[in-house]
């Protein structure tokens, strides 16, 4: 979890917030069904596959 800035009003917003509490600007247009773990799982799997293939 980290702080990000609202692109509309530069208010500091938690990365977990789906919209800016100050102006209501939506911060994450992507689907947010707990995608953090899935995202890094996919990235890790792809990187691992590339490493394995590069060694053969
Ligand atoms: Zn804002």
Provide structural commentary:
The protein has one domain. The protein is built from one helix and two strands. It has one helix spanning 35-55, and strands at 3-5, 12-14. A two-stranded antiparallel ribbon has the order 1-2. Strand 1 (3-5) and strand 2 (12-14) form a beta hairpin. Bound molecules: zinc ion. Residues 6, 8-9, 11, 20, 22-23, 25 line the site of zinc ion. Residues 6, 8-9, 11, 20, 22-23, 25 line the site of zinc ion (ZN).
Overall mean pLDDT stands at 84
Ligand inventory: zinc ion
Number of helices: 1
The H-and-E topology, N to C, reads as EEH
**How far apart, in Å, are the first and last alpha carbons?**
37 Å
Number of domains: 1
Output the structural class: alpha+beta
Question: What general form does the structure show?
Answer: rod-shaped
**What is the number of strand segments?**
2
Strand order of the largest sheet: 1-2
